[in-house]
Protein: UPF0235 protein GM1_031_00260
Amino acid sequence: MTDVQMVAVTVKPNSRKGPLVEVTDDGAITVYVREPAVEGKATKAVGVALAKHFGVPKSRVELVSGATSRIKRFRIG
Structure:
């Protein structure tokens, strides 16, 4: 059985730094992506970046809330 965790991330779309996942000392996660925040492109890119960061398939990363917000919650597992 795999561990399922909920993570809250701050999304930075249109970033030259992306794709990049940064975790601060206090556990806050910021994801930088090159895609713009239109038509879900940035959200999809964040899912891909999180999957790579946590070492899980893209199908195991699910958006829980914040589809149109810069702060999103994902279920990883």
